[in-house]
Amino acid sequence: MLSFDRDSEYKVVILMRQDLKMSKGKSAAQACHAAVSCALASKKKDPSSFSEWDSRGQKIAVLKVDSEMQLFEFKAIADRQGITNSIICDAGRTEIDPGTYTCLGMGPEKQSVLDKITGDLKML
C-alpha cells in the first residue's frame, strides 16, 4: 500500500454558493465545470501540480460559501497567491439566471496551501 505525506498531497477545492439554493444535480454539474476548468488550466499553466494531483487520485473537496461576495474574496486570495482557479458563470438554461456566478474552483495545489485558505469552511 502506498503511503502519502499529507503535506505533499494535491487537491482541488470547489467553493459552492449556498444562497442560490440550487438542486443537488445543478450543484454537481457546476462543481464538475469548476473541476474540469481547473484541471485544464493547471495542465497548461502548472503541469507539475497537475501531474501530482492526477497521479494521486485527483482529490476534490466541495465546500460551502454563503455568497457571491465570498466567492470573489477567495478568488482574490487565490490570484494573489498564484493558485490556479476558475470561477463558473452559469449560462442560465435551467435553474438560475444567465450570468450567475455559482462556484469557484481552486487548484490543483498542495493540500496544505489550500487548507490554510479554506480550512474553516464546511463540506457541502
Walk me through the structure.
With 124 residues, the protein is α+β, with helices and mostly antiparallel strands. It has one domain (6-118): Bit1. The protein is 43% helix and 23% strand. It is built from four helices and four strands. It has a four-stranded mixed beta sheet with strand order 2-1-4-3, sandwiched between helices. Helix 1 (24-45) packs across helix 2. The protein is globular, with a radius of gyration of 14 Å. The model has no long low-confidence stretch (mean pLDDT 94).
Query: For the record, what CATH class applies?
Result: Alpha Beta
Q: Helix and strand string, N-terminal first?
A: EHHEHEEH
- In the CATH hierarchy, the third-tier topology is known as Bit1
- Which blocks of ≥5 consecutive residues have pLDDT under 50? none
Mean pLDDT: 94
Q: Which bin fits the share of residues in helices?
A: 40-55%
Strand line-up in the sheet with most strands: 2-1-4-3
Count of β-strands: 4
* Number of distinct helices: 4
Mass-distribution shape: globular
Main sheet makeup: 4 strands, mixed
How many domains, in number, for the residues?
Answer: 1
Q: What is the gyration radius calculated from CA atoms? A: 14 Å
Strand content: 15-25%
In CATH, what is the homologous superfamily? Bit1
Distance between the termini: 29 Å
Structural class given helices, strands, pairing?
A: alpha+beta
In short:
With 124 residues, this protein is of the alpha+beta class. The protein is built from 4 helices and 4 strands. The protein has a 4-stranded mixed β-sheet with strand order 2-1-4-3, with helices on both faces.
